[in-house]
Amino acid sequence: MKYIAEPFKIKMVEPLEMTTREERVAALQKAHYNAFQLEASKVYIDLQTDSGTGAMSQNQWAGIMLGDEAYSGGRSYYKLIEAGTDIFGYEYIQPVHQGRAAEKVIFPLLIQEKGQIVIANTFFDTTRAHVGLAGGRAIDNVCPEGKDTATPFDFKGNMDVAELQHLLDEHGDRVVAIVQTITNNSVGGQPVSMANLREVYAISQEHKVPVVIDAARYAENAHFIKQREKGYADVDPKDIAREMFSYGDYFTMSAKKDAIVNMGGLIGAKVQSELVNRMKSRVIPYEGYLTYGGLSGRDLEAMAVGLYEGLDENYLTYRIGQMEYLGSRLEAYGIPFQNPVGGHAVFIDAGRLLAHLPWYQYPGHALAMELYLEAGIRSCDIGSFLMDRDPFTGEEQQATAEFTRLAIPRRVYTQAHLDVVAEALKSVQERAEQVPGYRITWEPEVLRHFTSQLEPIA
Ligand SMILES: *Cc1c(COP(=O)(O)O)cnc(C)c1O
Fold first, then answer.
1. Distances 106 to 112, 185, 267, 268, 441 between C-alpha atoms, Å
2. Which residue has the higher pLDDT, 120 or 391?
3. Global model pTM greater than 0.90
4. Which of 18, 61, 172, 354 has the highest CB neighbour count under 10 A?
């Protein structure tokens, strides 16, 4: 597959440190074989996350200089609200400092009693955590195709509609919200179709249950709909986004993804209501006054610009093209991955690539370690290492798949960087059976992947 050339040129560069294999061996030892504990300066190509790691444009940086730092009613706030209203078509747009801040404001208002249920096409971890913290029960309900890594399907992020009906019939008014995560991050950045958004919204209205769109990758999802869904080939991504959001009542958004800022988030409500007033009462103590929401005026300005840049058709073609290019190189080498690739990452099927390792030696983590040793590439495990122990039995839990995620920051790396990644994976593949598994030597009670210490198994 051809690489789609960048629709921009480079004006400022950030030098990268080149390390030797010996230096990387020492750095990993010092980090207790946990990539979160590596010094970023010792990383050559950083594919740990696409969150807040994008490169801002000249217009965003110009916006930084225009930022209005008035405590209330700043110019930059109004510019952001204008952009948000224009793109999403919602009456209430609220800046917050990042996606999880939006979740913290909204979910305790939707969940009023312990044990009430929220159903998602798949929860992102912080969203799941905020449902839990509010006393709710989070149920994942992705379509069956989303669970099958090897068989291509256009919209693996979709909600399972039949199962949704079933859950609503079974639990009745204990279901207090439905979440559509676009794109569906946890199943590999897989898109949700317009048809699925429309159908789920129709069902939600019948049952009078609000739909919350978890909108971090609204633009990448719009691009997939344009590419893959009948009737949208000639529609502008911005108009596709507007229709997507018409099938929701609220949204929470991490602007660190498709809005290409280093920090920021949004809450949206389709109509002004009493619930919106209650949201405002929570925003002020948690995030600050309504017109800055935990951000500087300059951040609001950069977000207002980024919300549009994320939807630019040429940018999106290049952006998704990077994933597809990397996927095609891996396919040529016979390296297994979640197929088709997602909008923000390529998920290597480490369970199959390192088939000699049992799941409890964390193949996804083992591959991430090996990629770092091989070429200074940082990635992360999305598999059994990421799964915490069962809180009741303390047993290790097996993930449904053992992935190593290569998340691609926006507008940061070039074709040559992606070639380095593909070739490093090929070298690891050639000596796959020599790659060691890992054991944990120390772990915290929860969210162990961030701080655990590990060692290779000799
Ligand atoms: C990143 C992300 C969040 C959380 O946003 P933060 O800005 O990291 O707090 C929520 N949902 C999805 C789908 C995400 O990708």
1. 11, 20, 8, 10, 38
2. 120
3. yes
4. 354
Give the model's confidence band at 346: pLDDT under 50 very low, under 70 low, under 90 confident, else very high.
very high
Q: Is the beta carbon of 42 within 6 A of some atom in ligand 1?
A: no
Q: How many residues does the chain have?
A: 458
Give the catalytic positions in this structure: 71, 124-125, 214, 216, 257, 449
Check pLDDT > 80 for residue 150.
no
- CA 337 and chain centroid, separation: 18
Q: What is the mean pLDDT of residues 405-433?
A: 98
On the CB side of 192, CA atoms within 13 Å amount to 37
> Is residue 234 classed exposed, middle or buried when 0-12, 13-18 and 19+ CB atoms within 10 A define those classes?
exposed
Ligand 1 in reach of 265 Cβ (< 6 A): yes
pLDDT at 1 over 90: no
Q: Which residues of 81-103 are buried (b: 16+ CB within 10 A; e: fewer)?
A: bebbeebbebebbbbbbbbbbbb
Q: Are the CB atoms for 52 and 262 separated by under 8 Å?
A: yes
Reported confidence tier of residue 186, pLDDT bands at 50, 70, 90: confident
Per 3-state DSSP, what percentage of the chain is helix, strand, and coil (rounded to 5)? 45, 15, 40
Dist. CA 390 → ligand 1 center (Å):
24
Residue 378 CA, chain-centre distance (Å), reads: 17
Yes or no: say if 194 and 158 are a contact pair by the CB < 8 Å rule.
Answer: no
